[in-house]
Amino acid sequence: MTDDGAAVVAAVDAVAERIEAERDHLTRLDSAIGDADHGGNMARGWAEAADAARDLNDPDAETVAKTVGKTLMAEVGGAAGPLFGGSLVFAAGELDEGVTPETAVAFAETYLEKVEDRGDARVGDQTMVDALTPAVHTFKKSIEVDDVEPIEALAKAVDAAERGVAFTVPIRARKGRASYLGWRSVGHQDPGATSALIILEELLAVAAERLDVDVPETDAASPTIPDDDPEEASDDPAAASEDD
């Protein structure tokens, strides 16, 4: 098994274990605004995904990710299967050259794009998109603009996702079963966004463990505000100020 493949398998194992531990919590969240099946569906799906990943023979990262995605699609009921699993199948192709900062950014962007398309959801709809969007944007900016170490970029992404989960509480659901409640959905934390955060937290923990470093204490704030196209940004701070 390649190092990248082994790392992804380890991450899947960690996610499966954490999702099982959070099963009741996720169920309670879903009980308030959904079918009360999110915790059980996710726990079952990730357990099967972890088994499938471990059974692979010397896989690379792309193969593990695709296998996990297909298993989630098959085992996770409701909309969560296609959202979490189907999006992963598509995004896995970005890892064909292994896991690097560049491929990780491409993977994250593709995953978010597919989740948005499949769920027809955007920020503010009280869905997992509210956690994933700030996480992905923060990760990309941290890598491509702020030039921080990948582990710190991932830590910043987790912090951004935490804020995104908190953002789902005071807003009205506009997608999924929770949207049927109308204004009664206000005040409830979205279970899908919570699951997305759990997954990101475990990715960070496994990455830190495999790199033998402590999880950085950081936040999503960026030390720079990038231009729309960083490649065309002026190297002259004075010129930038004059353009403003």
TrEMBL record:
Domain DhaL: 6-205
Keyword Lipid metabolism: no
Keyword hit for Heme: no
This protein's UniProt keywords: Kinase, Transferase
Pfam families referenced in this protein's UniProt entry, alphabetically: Dak2
InterPro entries: DhaK_L_YcgS (IPR012737), DhaL_dom (IPR004007), DhaL_dom_sf (IPR036117), Dihydroxyacetone_Kinase (IPR050861)
UniProt-listed GO biological process terms: glycerol catabolic process
GO MF term list: glycerone kinase activity
Entry GO CC: cytosol
PROSITE patterns the UniProt entry points to: DHAL
Region Disordered, residue ranges: 214-244
EC number: 2.7.1.-
Biased composition (Acidic residues): 226-244
Highest taxon, organism lineage: Archaea
Protein's name in the database: Dihydroxyacetone kinase-like protein
Native source organism of the sequence: Halorubrum trapanicum
